[in-house]
Amino acid sequence: MTATPQRLRGLKVWVVLAVSSLIYGCSSGIAAPQEGLPVVDACFVSAAGTVPVKLEVANSSEQRRKGLMGRTSLAPDAGMLFEYSEPREASHGFWMYKTLIPLDIAYLNEDGVIGSIRQMVPCASATGAGCPTYPAGVSFIQAVEMNAGFFQEHGIRTGDRLFIGNGNCQTQ
């Protein structure tokens, strides 16, 4: 059986639609914010003052793994709080695989005290193996990702503290 021009045209349309659907399906799953994550009011307290923030809380392995992947923006006062049940080693870090916006990350101890702050840039690698990690350099049990430049802009440094809950911020 020989292919007619009409059949070839139909096959080309089918291939284009199939590939487009595949690309959309693979990318759309990471583009939206994670659904169902609780959002908490919190504040960073430093010598420069109190800075209120709204943080999405990721406390399961799956939620932490997805993090802020696929986001194209964050509100200026928004971020993500990563909570762990056990402290992480200083060598443990984060990466920017499939993360589209530059971020800063603060690593915190059990009292909410910032032990280190790192600047992270998006990774264009098609595989996670091509993305650098950003180790904490200190033991931590929580981490907070905010827009790049947030901590510097607000005078927040190592030794400063995160308080969770709006009521905790009013007394600072």
UniProtKB/TrEMBL annotation:
Pfam families: DUF192 (PF02643). PANTHER family: UPF0127 PROTEIN MJ1496. This is DUF192 domain-containing protein. It comes from Marinobacter salsuginis.
